[in-house]
Amino acid sequence: MPASVTADPTVSLRDRESYTDMIREVHGRGHRACAPTAASQRAAAITGCLALCIATAAAAADLLDDVAARAVARCESIAPDRGQTAMIFNPRDRQTVWERSECFQALAATLRDGRHCEFAVERESRLFDGTGVSPVACRRALDARRASDRDEAARIPSPQRVVDASIVRNGNGRDVDLTVRTTGGYAHRYTLRAALVGPDGDLRPLLSIPQPLGPTESTLVHLVPGDRYAAALAGPPAPSAKALRVELALAATTLDERAIFALLPVTVRESAILRPLPGPAKSR
Questions:
Q1: Which site among 73, 136, 213, 264 is 20 to 30 Å from 17 CA-CA?
Q2: C-beta of residue 120 within 8 angstroms of C-beta of residue 137
Q3: How does DSSP classify residue 38?
Q4: Strands of 176-183's sheet, edge to edge?
Q5: pLDDT of 14-31, one tens digit each?
Q6: Which phi and psi angles does 131 have, rounded to 5°?
Q7: Is 81 exposed, middle or buried (0-12, 13-18, 19+ CB in 10 A)?
Q8: Does residue 279 sit in helix, strand or coil?
Q9: Which residues contact 126 (CB under 8 A, 6 or more apart)?
């Protein structure tokens, strides 16, 4: 599994107060704050807290866009003239920075979106070096993150793939059992979808669920309510469905994972199988 970015332990009290507000907003529940020390490297603090916010809030892939939008809004809410100057403990090229610019620079790398780099304005000074936060520095950090993504994607073993599927009447006489066989070597969370296919290719959904899978082949059995199956089988539109389609796809649970998985060919991160339905679901 791609490694998640964790919060840097050297975060000042001021950083904690500022960025845990964003964590609370995105979570809507309990949060884990970054640990404070007497001094901080603010760039690591912002990157760590943004990554912590995103990684812990995005429990499901369909939340990722909302999490990203909230993170952008948090950076936009910082006053453009809010600055920070610290010579002793900051990196030499971050002795003086605009906090809003620093937030957007970290955000550009986290979201893999170079458009945010235009907001990474360098704070110029005759006495202090602020070149570590600038459009050039932002694009450099983004390139480094993308290179890391490529390395992570290359290390992912063969994802699980669906190799067989069938549907039979459950022993209770009302419902049906969907049986799916998979094979592959990548333990992760996937999305499993099943639908009946009509004669015109229309899809009639049966289920769409998160499916954790281990690093070995699996046999999955899921109950489908009988009324849902009957409705999908008969239509509308009529006539009756003729095939069963089952799909399995890698599910990104963090923005890091979404960026990494996007580098994999679609045929690697997703698989599907089509099986005929010769008649009514058989009983076990």
A1: 136
A2: yes
A3: S
A4: 218-224, 176-183, 161-169, 282-283
A5: 333 443 344 344 333 333
A6: -70, -10
A7: exposed
A8: coil
A9: none
